[in-house]
Amino acid sequence: MANLGFIGLGVMGSRMVKRLLDSGNQVTIYNRTKSKGDQLVKEGAIWADSPRKVVEASEITFSMVTNTEALDAITQGENGVLAGLLPGKIYVDMSTVSPEKSQEVAKKVSDLGAVMLDSPVSGSVETLEAGKLSVMVGGDADAFEKVKPFLKIIAPKAAHHVGGNGLAVAMKIASNLSLAVQMLAFSEGILLAEKMGIKREVAADVLFNSVIASPMIKYRGPFVLDMPEEAWFNVNMMQKDMNLALELGRHLNVPMPTTAITNEILTAARGMGMEEKDFAIIFEVLAKMSGVS
User: Fold this and answer.
1) Which of 154, 124, 133, 128 is nearest to 228 (CA)?
2) pTM of the model
3) Are 108 and 82 in contact (CB under 8 A)?
């Protein structure tokens, strides 16, 4: 049991807070849209009016925000995370952001005598709720050991320390690009089978029981039959990660042809007004392009 903080109550963040609360921890929360914290407050969370107040009330503070700009917004300024940090405190950012920005913030945290870890997760809403989420961590190894019991509440499957600050978020970007690339290849296969006259659900069932059925295909592939009303990870969020991957590729001289092509399909999805849909909407983009309703 500990006094924890959590900043960012999106689809994933709010569920993480629930797991921490259910494990008996005190959790102080903040979100830009206050109403997203109402249910958690009813379940025992403590509301704070700024990221700074969350940090001041907590031994370990977690955050999970949308992008690099959002990380800047919650960490900088008189009401930001940095303003509330004292020596000995630990700040764990679980967002998928620019590795360079994550390292920059970590340096500022270190200058205050505190410690920052970057700790993005691998998985989705379904894997989180099933207790199958995994997490990767970059930063000080001793701080990782202190935080690990709480990370294991959020992600019981695995918590990997991958190296120094910024390396975990780099690992997450390397992982995430494959999600969209796999979804594109899976969608192409389904559409090819369907246009040959095989029913979509039959084609999907065959592929779910074939050698191409990765865990991601098994839990997101069914979206080609029935899209969820609430996106698990929408087009805008996925394209943000793909752009981060392409930026890293250019910086490191790593050619990324499948990432680039898949990113263009995500751009097409945005052009069709599907940016708030789960990124599995890639299938519908291809379907429209191929004349399938």
Assistant:
1) 124
2) 0.85
3) yes
